[in-house]
Amino acid sequence: MPNPSDKVQLKTKKETIEGLLMPSFDKDIILIKLDTGYNIGFNKKDVQKITVIEKANPPSKNLNQKKEHKETKETKQKIFHNPALPTISVLHTGGTIASKVDYRTGGVVANFSPEELLALYPELKSIANINSELVAKMWSDDLRFKHFELLAKKIEQHIRSGATGIIIGMGTDNLAVAAAALAFIVEHTPVPIILVGSQRSSDRGSSDGGMNLICAAEFITKSDFAGVAICMHENENDNNCNILPATKTYKLHSSRRDAFQPINTTPIAIVHYQTKTIQFLQKDYPTRTNDKPIIKPKMQEKVGLLKIHLNMFPEQFSFFQGYKGLIIEGTGLGHTPGQVPNPECAIHKKFYPALKSLINSGCIIVMTTQCIYGTVNLNVYDKGRDLLSLGVIPGEDMLANTAFVKLAWLLGNYKPLDAKKLITQNLRGEINTQHQYESQFIPK
Amino acid sequence: MPNPSDKVQLKTKKETIEGLLMPSFDKDIILIKLDTGYNIGFNKKDVQKITVIEKANPPSKNLNQKKEHKETKETKQKIFHNPALPTISVLHTGGTIASKVDYRTGGVVANFSPEELLALYPELKSIANINSELVAKMWSDDLRFKHFELLAKKIEQHIRSGATGIIIGMGTDNLAVAAAALAFIVEHTPVPIILVGSQRSSDRGSSDGGMNLICAAEFITKSDFAGVAICMHENENDNNCNILPATKTYKLHSSRRDAFQPINTTPIAIVHYQTKTIQFLQKDYPTRTNDKPIIKPKMQEKVGLLKIHLNMFPEQFSFFQGYKGLIIEGTGLGHTPGQVPNPECAIHKKFYPALKSLINSGCIIVMTTQCIYGTVNLNVYDKGRDLLSLGVIPGEDMLANTAFVKLAWLLGNYKPLDAKKLITQNLRGEINTQHQYESQFIPK
Questions:
Q1: Does the distance separating the beta carbons of A342 and B138 come in below 8 Å?
Q2: Alpha-carbon gap: A38 to the closest alpha carbon of chain B (Å)
């Protein structure tokens, strides 16, 4: 009989496929990893023949192989409580970090149970007792503001029950913006709340989810940090994880494990995976307290985000009539088309009136930059000054997505006039007024 | 009397200001550079008193100071033709590279004449004879597709008149996307067409415009490259410029001089400013020919670009009903909200029908990623596969803005069915199928 990690040939009525046999949690499914790195699942009843082409090498010291072997042995182990260790709550929301292969499409869907996930990462048990709870089961693309309310209430509940820290597993697509939203919603937390994701699914050899999870747990148990942050790979190797600021992080690559980058600032800390040590890069961070968490989960639904691009039409602005807030992702220092002194371009005369009409209707418009790095400055060019005089608010160096959830949160909890004032004030590290970050830009 | 670069105190009825006296092209205006680096202009008639606080140092070898001193001497020199040198056409369109201080607002507006610009950069005269022409006078934010037609016709005309290369001065906000648009529009060019911009206006000490212009001219006269490219600072120092691929460049910082970064590829070449040498980093680039340029300037106006964000509404998709094409800037590998198996989220059931309805109406929808780096892949997750089955076309590793102008150009020149096929084919280096670029990502 073939064993997991053996190279096998598998025959069905339709096809013959070669690849590595993977451990499968579903006894009716045979799972094959192709050379491309992707997995295909087959119903056992469809498989006519399976032959071993090459036996697997004996287990090596490699992290991922080790994990694959433990998977099969430990899946059914019971979780036990060690009174000498602190307790971390792991809240699952879905995403790649909680995914295995989708047998419908050959792709990956969010469908691991919390117990299966814990079984995959047995290292966690030596760091802390793990309380895990499935809060949602969705790709982060489908998150809505009301899911943050659900999540915030769970966070509050687990902290009040004595968790020494919270880990939130989430899909990576919207992980950074979700972290920003939670940073505003959780107005005070006595313990760390760390979001982790995985750029590769947990049944792939190159999965980063396990190390991100373990580094988050190490960071929670070994540091005095309290606040919302993200824990993801620092680089393409399995040596370090970054602890990243919730409001100033961008997913800057669609697939790399080190896709998550701090913008206009440094990581808060680095977790060295091999030595299990923490190195802080930032000094002013919130620290643990003994009081209770404060959550303010209300968010205004009618807030929009509009990316400026070439050859726009004024209707793209007017669309947001009736919205309470709008984040514009402008070009450069924060610009839009409008009022060019060119008689051929009558259309440009319509942009500022469209903006003005939105502002007159009570919509708060905040300018950010699509450059990702750097700050908005509406004082440099006449274009910016024109926007200022229309009533557009400069969003300083806030990421567009961060400004978006901040404005929605402000409008959910404050009167519009106060929201207008607070949007340009640094509440959760989302605005870096020090401008130290000029040296943090990352060419090469 | 104070001279340019002297530190002065200036008094008006309203205020007293200290700063460096700047050379001014307008005899009625006194121009002061503040410690912040920004300039303020005063009408001479408003100035009550101007006193020298500190005389300027004698001219140093510093590039920018040298330029400031030459400015005053050479502004009125006549341009002469050197028969031993090749001829470069510089087409001005406006932007910071052609800007000085706006005395209306204290900001910067596009209002240098071509002659003034040439006078500012006398080094150009030793490289080539310069034919300069003012094509437009606008911020790049206000560019529309029809301006590219105007520009393309000027390019064609100057090449046919014997230019050894074309330099286009442009505002930086849309410079990268303008380069991409011109790369498609100019189907064939026998000579190089290099876009240059300036992140700091040319009357500021830290201006990069001059060096970018000079490096572009050096590159044109010293290399066999023919095609559309961008020439901007490689780093924050004044040592090198990058020659960047027209279809794979992103303005990744709102103010840094090295804001323009190659995405998923390397620069085409580096121009070493001090040694005036060219170092090619790419091997397969189009080279000079003796034939005529071919331009295809038609572009379809009704093409949109939609950035995916949290908590969207299906109406944001339906808005594009009637459009011929739509670029979606999806999350991660190319995702949108839709069809989450959550009864609380009825709204998610409406996203795919909205997309389907657009596609059924004949709108071509192409998926790109807001991660900037990396590629779209709709085969990994069930979400991607659902989008594929709706008829969404994966935009490979094209930048959203590049895909946007490519689709508009394809729909302006081909039937929809052909446009659909060509959008996923690499026409101008906009798709990097080699995936060598994994190593080009730029953390730190």
A1: yes
A2: 8
Q: Which CATH class is domain A77-295?
A: alpha beta
| Residue A251 appears among annotated catalytic residues | yes
Nearest Cβ partner for A331 among B174, B373, B374: B174
Q: Which CATH class is domain A7-58?
A: mainly beta
Chain B: residue nearest A380 by CA? B107
Torsion angle defined by CA atoms of residues B109, B111, B114 and B115, in that order, rounded to the nearest 10 degrees: -120
Indicate whether this complex's ipTM tops 0.95: no
Q: Is A277 a catalytic residue?
A: no
Domain residue extents for chain B: 7-56, 68-295, 303-422
**A93: annotated active-site residue:** no
Report yes or no: B97 and B202 within 8 Å, Cβ to Cβ: yes
Helix (H) or strand (E) holding A187: strand A186-188
Q: Kindly report the CATH number that applies to the domain delimited by B7-56.
A: 2.30.30.520
CATH class of the A303-422 domain in this structure: alpha beta
Walk along chain A (444 residues) and give the pLDDT tens digit of each residue. 788 778 899 898 888 888 888 765 556 777 777 665 555 677 788 889 999 998 876 543 333 433 333 333 333 344 567 889 999 999 988 777 766 544 444 455 555 555 666 677 778 888 999 888 888 777 888 899 999 999 999 999 999 999 999 999 999 999 999 999 999 999 999 999 999 998 876 666 667 888 999 999 999 999 999 999 999 999 888 899 999 999 999 999 999 999 999 999 999 999 999 999 999 999 999 999 999 999 999 999 999 999 999 999 999 999 999 999 999 999 999 999 997 655 557 888 899 999 999 999 999 999 999 999 999 999 888 888 999 999 999 999 999 999 999 999 999 999 999 999 999 999 999 999 775 555 455 533
Q: Do B139 and A340 touch (CB under 8 A)?
A: yes
Domains A7-58 and A303-422 share a fold: no
Beta carbons of B332 and A256 less than 8 Å apart: no
- Kindly give the residue spans of alpha helices, DSSP state H, lying in A161-269: 175-185, 209-222
- Going across the sheet that includes B325-330, the strands are B303-307, B325-330, B364-369, B393-394
pTM check: above 0.90? no
In degrees and rounded to multiples of 5, residue A66 shows phi and psi of -55, -45
**Given this structure, which CATH class describes domain B68-295?**
alpha beta
